[in-house]
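Pipeline run #58 for the internal structure catalog. This entry was flagged by the ingest filter as a single-chain record with no existing model, so it goes straight to prediction. Upstream metadata was stripped on purpose; only the residue string is passed forward. Reviewer on rotation: M.T. Logging verbosity set to normal.
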Amino acid sequence: MKRLLTIGLTIGILTLSFGCKIIDAIVDSSGPLPRLPNWGYLIADMNGADWGRTYKNGYQVTHGIISHTDEPQGVFFALKSILYTPDGAERQELLFQNIPFAATAARHRVISCLPSADCQLHEDVQGVLYTCNSDVSLNSYYTVDSEDNYVQIDSYNERTQEVKGTFQLTFAVRKNRSPGDPLPDTLRFRNGRFHTKIIRYKARGE
């Protein structure tokens, strides 16, 4: 798989992957394929079942990310959690962006930024879920605005860069969905919790 050093915005979400291709960054090679760093956990029920067990014998990586597109840097961070099949071919990417750093607990509304919108104008936290097969993007799931979508930051440790929180999301697939995606059209994430670290990706040669 050709890996690209790409840090960009895709429908307003800092993906740190492009077209579902893993970027050239710090990777953990202990799994069947090179993968992004993992620290801590992100767990949730999706449509009443454990999201982390979607793929039998699969694995998951979770971490926070400093957004290099933010000005000034360090004001916001992103949160990423990816579920892989055992061979790494299929995966689901759950992404949050534009989460503000705060010393106290805070709850933030989550929206999805459509491709036709100017995502940088939004002050809300942005969330999306992608499904991928190898290097091919299958479908994008956006928040249902009539539902109570939120991420709550319970604690942030500036020294260790650890962040803890909870979340709740309801997603619906975009129109013209691609075949081969086993997920239903509507995804309800409930009882979401995470504890992870915010990291900085290294550029090639660093």
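catalog note: The longest strand covers residues 186-199.
catalog note: The two ends are 22 Å apart (CA to CA).
status: ready for reviewer M.T.
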